[in-house]
Write a structure and sequence with these properties.
The protein has about 325 residues and is an alpha/beta fold. It has 2 domains: about 210 residues, L-asparaginase, N-terminal domain (Rossmann fold, 3-Layer(aba) Sandwich); about 110 residues, Rossmann fold, CATH 3.40.50.40. It contains 10 helices and 14 strands.
Length: about 325
């Protein structure tokens, strides 16, 4: 296929381990994230020239845990900008893996296009003996260039797998197969230059959502509190006093709250803070009024979203002026 007939794909770099470098090819210690530019990442994979016509932009150069709301909103604007280009078939975002799952879910809620958006990264820096970044990026380009992936929302392509942004979890701190969809399973695979899909996401995403961040400069402050044996409401009260507009409580079991935590949460709700219950465990569902009286305490049940993804959805809901009842509807829908 000639270069002028290949699909045009934009690759937006934000830094992370995929752009990192170490002091040795055989050790992790001493490596730094966000060293190489996205143009360097692409130049290191000559085979990409046979898959797509690529353009690149450096949106940020940080480890993903340092991506705040301003950078998130800027990234969303740049993704939407490229998707609005008539001859752009899709967008790839290279990210650090530490906060990849919530960043991908944020984009899944605010991107306004049916074109393909793929998020990818790496568990090993580019200087490692068996760096996974180049193959992840190659597979991401193959996925973004395929017409099969259009309309599926934001996708994560890691370790040859295609995973819906809502479903993806980072399950391990180190291994290259860290990213999985433990509740609902992966959507499919990218093998060589083939995309094989077996199902589609069921929840609302991208241009079917109500979330428009194009004019936003920041997001409401939402914090996360962990529930545990012998906990208290001190953290909840402190965060409310510090200006939190929303809280996610990662509770044990079905996100049940201790009496002490429940008392602090009820006080927070009475003061106007919206509180979402999410599971502390890696998988599972939190349903309204199951093992905790949401109706009495004014809390929101977080469905199957992890605490970090519940934080994303709550922040967007609050940014659009939603009440607690409307936030519950959002969690049931997205």
């Amino acid at each position: 296929m000639s270069a002028n007939t290949l699909p045009r794909i934009a690759v937006l770099g934000t830094g992370g381990t995929i752009a990192g470098a170490g002091i040795s090819s055989t050790q992790y210690s001493g490596y730094r994230a966000a060293v190489s530019g996205v143009d360097q990442l692409l130049a290191a994979i000559p085979a990409l020239q046979d898959v797509a016509s690529l353009e690149c932009e450096q949106v940020a150069q940080v480890a993903s845990q340092n991506i705040g709301s301003a950078t998130l909103l800027h990234l969303a604007r740049r993704v939407n900008y490229w998707l609005n280009e008539m001859d752009c078939a899709g967008v790839i975002v290279t990210l650090g893996t530490n906060a990849l799952e919530e960043t991908a879910y944020f984009l899944n809620l605010v991107v306004k296009s049916r074109k393909t958006v793929v998020v990818t990264g790496a568990m090993r820096p580019s200087t490692s003996l068996s760096a996974d970044g180049p193959m992840n990026l190659y597979r991401a380009v193959v996925a973004a260039a395929s017409p099969l992936t259009a309309g599926l929302g934001v996708l994560v392509v890691m370790n040859d797998q295609v995973i819906a942004a809502r479903d993806v979890h980072k399950m391990d701190t180190m291994t290259v197969d860290s990213f999985k969809a433990p509740v609902f399973g992966i959507l499919g695979w990218v093998l060589d230059k083939q995309v094989r899909l077996y199902k589609k996401p069921a929840r609302v995403h991208t241009d079917d959502t109500e979330f428009d961040t194009s004019q936003m400069d920041t997001l409401p402050r939402v914090d996360i509190v962990m529930g545990y044996q012998d906990d208290s409401g001190v953290a909840v009260s402190a965060l409310v006093n510090a200006g939190a507009q929303g809280l996610v409580v990662a509770g044990a079991g079905t996100a049940s709250l201790s009496d002490a935590m429940a008392e602090a949460v009820s006080a927070a709700v009475r003061s106007g803070v919206v509180v979402v219950r999410a599971p502390r465990s890696a998988t599972g569902i939190v349903m309204k009024n199951i093992e905790f009286d949401d109706s009495m305490h004014g809390t929101v049940a977080g469905d199957t979203l992890s605490p970090v993804k519940a934080k994303v959805l709550l922040a967007l809901a609050l940014a659009h002026g939603k009440s607690a009842e409307e936030v519950q509807s959002a969690f049931d829908r997205y």
